[in-house]
Amino acid sequence: MTDAVEPAANPAGDTPPSDARNILISGGSGFIGTELTTQLRRAGHTVTLLVRHPTRNADERMWDPDAGWLNPEVIERADAVINLSGASISKLPWTLSYKRTILESRVNATTTLAAAIAKAKNPPAVFLSGSAVGYYGDRPGEVLTEQSGIGEGFLPKVVDAWERASRLASPASRVVNVRTGVVLGQGGLTGTLKLIAKLGGAGPLGSGTQHWPWISLYDEAAGIRHLLSSELEGPVNLAGPTPATAADVMRTIAEQVHRPYWLPAPAWAIKGILADAGRELILSDQNQSPQLLLDDGFVFRDVDLEQTVEKALAG
């Protein structure tokens, strides 16, 4: 398998700034990746996308993470690598087969990138690898920092394996694990919650008091951009500074689409229908603190839940 390597074009056509970088992204066409790629290019960086299909554009490079194949020249040309690959955890149901897909899609992609970085003669300065708040599991009554221990359940095991795979790139590159919460933007989970509300199904999910660590799509991408130039290493929580519960989020969405917030979904029904996905995606209480990121100088743009939901539902 071969893939010719040429410098990727900068679609923005702007003169690159003095700190412009060549940035390689896996998962760049996804929900978060698309916004991140847009922000990076607007800032004057050159972005190259790893794709699993034959390349169609000058900014694409083919790879096969399931087979562990990646042209080493792609890594040698990168100043930074951002890994956002992984099958969606929002796709339901979580069958045994799909659970394996969730795990393997993350570990295979991360291992392929990290191993290539470790072998590179000229490794990138930083490897930012996706991670998730799922590491902590259900933790009612706790404020979760990067020092909080691993939780119990399927997702904590997945995230732990995912982060361990990324460490293969150290010490060749600075490795950062971006522990992301609930991302609110046009598409993704927001679209699903909007549909539920429009159909009249908005209401308490279980008790509704469980914390959902939300962040706007813009701030998610901006936070990743910040970490490119930061000195932080290891896990970094990426959640907004304004805590909210599941009830807060669902009520706000219902108000924005002019539907009632009234129909409760009992915890026993959610667990009965969705099993692990219900327990770990919907009912888990995760009050995730972004204090480490704040202390590092990052400033969130979107701190008001109502305004963020309004932007996310626009269009």
UniProtKB/TrEMBL annotation:
Annotated region (Disordered), positions in chain: 1-21
Stretches assigned to the DUF1731 domain: 265-310
Family: Belongs to the NAD(P)-dependent epimerase/dehydratase family. SDR39U1 subfamily.
Organism expressing this protein natively: Subtercola boreus
The protein's name: TIGR01777 family protein
NAD-dependent epimerase/dehydratase domain segment(s): 23-230
NCBIfam families associated with the record: yfcH
A Pfam family annotated for this UniProt entry: Epimerase
